[in-house]
Amino acid sequence: MNKPLLFTLLTALWLGGSALDAPPPGWAEIGKIKPRHAKEIGSSTWSIGGETLDRDYTDYHSYKKYLGPLGAKRIRLQGGWAKCEKVKGQYDFAWLDAVVQDAFSQGVAPWIELSYGNPIYEGGGEAKLAGALPSSPEALAAWDNWVKATITRYKDQVKDWEIWNEPDIAGEAKITGDAYAAFYIRTAELIRAIQPEAKLMAFGLAGPNRLEFVEPLFKKLKDQDKLNLVDIFTYHGYSPNPDLSYPTVEKLRQLVWGYKPEVVFMQGENGAPSTPKAVTIGAMRDYDWSELMQAKWDLRRMLGDHGRGIATNLFTISDIHYAAGDHMTGVNTKGLLKTNPDKTIERPKLAYRAAQHVFTLFDDQWVPLQENQPTVNQAQMAAFGYRHTGNSGTLVTLWCNDARPADAYAPKPTTVTVEGTFTRPVLVDLLTGSVYEIPKKQWKQAGNKHTFTGIPVADYPVVIAEKSLLPLG
User: Fold this and answer.
1) Mapping DSSP to helix (H, G, I), strand (E, B) and coil, where does residue 197 land?
2) Most-buried pick from 29, 109, 116, 208 (CB within 10 A)?
């Protein structure tokens, strides 16, 4: 490709973040990814965050019309002990019933995190992030009763239960690894007694580098012959450059798998803000962000996880309005949906559309390659290959991972070689959903190896795939 044509293509495709108005010669736009409703997708590992409904910081009934069309197959909810039990011994599950039932009706399966404390009991802890675990005999007995009531109520609808959220960041009410371990085992045994087939999710760990916080649980489980009480390990761990977190995650995986190799890892909560640091609160608030940067970051986190076999819960569907008295106060702008001050939805952000494209494409029919990964001629570039379970189709994801996403980034013309099957390969822009024919002169086949040249790759994922396997609109 000559330099003027390459510059025109790259500028139109990525620097402006919008689809081509007039495709350059040889790179014809042949369609767009047609988003699929969650009910149209058989199964996938994708989840979307529905957190903080327990504290009324978001409004499910304002955003629910966007849930099914997003395409995630699961939603993370917080059970909200303090919201369910405002009078000792009396439970009001009406608010959670409505959410669980509506989500299921849209083809989205809820998974529930059991938390936080309940201040109506002495020693009951606080109903907020970074609060204490229940500690007094009365509070622990009340916790047990609420857990049993919750599992009994939702056991036919909810299969996955997460026990607490980010216990490793508790402030003045510091939670030790040993204290969490005892609390986890106590709660997990209650769940399994009522729902033997339940999947149990440990930690919701804020920092994946906190190995010293993790190991006490697994030591206790091993000593007590109870390693069956952990099925899924959830962790968070925000990083301005999402690609820099994986060496730490790998150390965490090796620690956990040393005790139980069958444990599934899940990014239980991750996403980027969409506004400057003067506006947003929460993780990564020390950096300026934009809606374009958010969308790029989310794409990199999702597909960086997916290529490594890590399930992902994207945080979060709606901007979150934290109230005074919680761990923080203000608007956390990591939502895919921009909110009004009353928590109603103003509009979807670019990240919503980007997530739709990922959830639509990467269902369980695409399996990450364990061997024979794509090779590229660039340093500091992520490249993952996939095979289609229904046929011999191949897919490749590519992005530059040298820095955190930017509003402007000069893409790199890249040569990619991958083993697989292509008859009509196309390039997919996951931000816009636009699909482009790859000119025949820019790819060649030698046996089962395919080499693509001059592929423009920027600081967010693009896809090379077989056209016939894409849902085009």
Assistant:
1) coil
2) 116
Contact in structure between 368 and 349 (CB atoms under 8 Å)? no
Average pLDDT score over residue span 72-93: 98
Strands 412-419 and 425-429: unpaired
**Domain residues for 452?**
3-32+367-469
- Answer for the pair 383, 396: CB distance below 8 angstroms, yes or no: yes
Q: Mean pLDDT, to the nearest integer, of 128-152?
A: 97
**H-helix or E-strand containing 184?**
helix 177-194
Pair of tokens at residue 59: 């409004």
Alpha-carbon span 459 to 461, nearest angstrom: 7
Helix, strand, or coil here: 111?
Answer: strand
CATH number of domain containing 278: 3.20.20.80
Return the minimum-mean-pLDDT range out of 77-91, 168-182, 206-220, 439-453.
Answer: 168-182
Give the C-alpha distances (Å, rounded to integers) separating 317 from 27, 45, 101, 242, 471.
34, 16, 18, 19, 23
> How many CA atoms, within 13 angstroms, populate the side-chain half-sphere of residue 225?
0
Helix (H, G, I), strand (E, B) or coil at 256: helix
d(CA 198, CA 363): 23
Judge if 360 and 385 occupy the same domain.
Answer: no
CATH of the domain at 390: 2.60.40
Residue identified by tokens 């989205």 is 108
Nearest to 294 by CA among 374, 372, 350: 350
- Residues 319, 457 share a domain: no
Domain boundary among 364, 381, 397: 364
Kindly provide the b/e burial profile for residues 15-40, where b requires at least 16 CB atoms within 10 angstroms of the residue's own CB.
eebebbeebbeebebebbbebbbbee
Residue 25's pLDDT band, with cuts at 50, 70 and 90, is low
